[in-house]
Amino acid sequence: MQNVKAALVTGGSRGIGAAIVERLARDGAAVAFTYSSSRETALALAARIEAAGGRALAIQADSADEAQLRAAVNRAAGEFGSLDILVNSAGVLEMGPVDSFPIERLDRSLAVNVRGAFIAIQEALRHMKAGGRIVTIGSMARERVGFPQSSVYAMTKGAVAAMVRGVAIDLGPRGITVNNVQPGPTQTGMVPEGYVDALVGMSPVGRLGRPEEIAGMVAYLVSPEAGYVTGASFTIDGGMIA
Ligand SMILES: NC(=O)c1ccc[n+]([C@@H]2O[C@H](COP(=O)([O-])OP(=O)(O)OC[C@H]3O[C@@H](n4cnc5c(N)ncnc54)[C@H](OP(=O)(O)O)[C@@H]3O)[C@@H](O)[C@H]2O)c1
């Protein structure tokens, strides 16, 4: 496939990941994306993109499962013949007080949000050439936790931001950029219903973010003009940490 960028978005079936999938497809990329359980939603998204003349591939792969994740990266690269863009969006939000937080949920959060992002990058590098682009979806919570019961989630997003800086230094000489996009509260299934009014009340712009607004930043970071942008974290939060 000449001149068509090949992309993989982890956790692309819903929410922010789905908006990124749609945006990259609209910008002309062939886009593979993973999901863990929402098969119907994932297949419907892929079908919508294909019906609009794009190329999309939905792959079931649990980011906590190393073998599944590596296989998904290789399948995407195999189907498209290359891999130019990796976006790590798969993530889970586990909340709870520190004194009773179940260690299995801590392990799961680290496995999906941190270990999964690292493994996907590692596997993608087997296919990515100079000009490659890697973006992780972190969180505003890395800059300002702001809520009780968020220590584990904030820990994972802090780790992602630090990893991005380290990986960016390693990959600079190879011409591959690595950046981190940190959304504030964004309208997806991840924001618990009962929190919306409080979050809107805390927001200088008086609303939640839209997944498309996060996707717009990702679209810039994976574009050719962002070649000098690497190792950076960008917070998109309507001014909540201002
Ligand atoms: N929404 C916010 O306010 C907000 C704020 C800051 C950061 N973020 C970050 O943005 C990213 C996307 O969040 P979202 O709000 O779009 O969440 P979401 O609406 O809950 O969607 C999560 C997506 O990740 C996938 N996923 C979850 N666990 C997975 C796993 N183990 N393996 C593979 N895929 C998995 C889901 O797949 P299934 O459909 O199969 O479940 C779904 O596509 C996350 O990293 C999150 O931490 C979100």
From TrEMBL:
SMART domains: PKS_KR (SM00822). It comes from Pseudoduganella namucuonensis. Gene3D superfamilies: NAD(P)-binding Rossmann-like Domain. Belongs to the short-chain dehydrogenases/reductases (SDR) family. It holds the Pfam family adh_short_C2. InterPro entries: KR_dom, NAD(P)-bd_dom_sf, SDR_fam. This is 3-oxoacyl-[acyl-carrier protein] reductase. Residues 5-184 form the Ketoreductase domain. Keywords: Oxidoreductase. Coiled coil: none annotated. It comes from the Bacteria. GO terms for molecular function: oxidoreductase activity.
